[in-house]
What does this fold into?
Amino acid sequence: MIVYSGPGARNTTIPGLLGAGLPKLSPEQQEAVTRAKKYAMEQSIKMVLMKQTLAHQQLVSFLILF
It folds into this structure.
């Protein structure tokens, strides 16, 4: 794998390319990230449950026909 660094790159070292040079988040930013992660997890679970429910309904409908 080749990693190219362009004019916007802050650091050309491996840790810099991998994100070690990122600034620390403020408490408000950290809280926003935590809320966003929680929301993403909830949405993911919601989608999985919706797909399972749909698959179950389709299976039941199929079985009723036969």
Remarks:
- Residues 6 and 21 are 16 Å apart (CA to CA).
- Residues 25-65 form one domain.
- The radius of gyration is 22 Å.
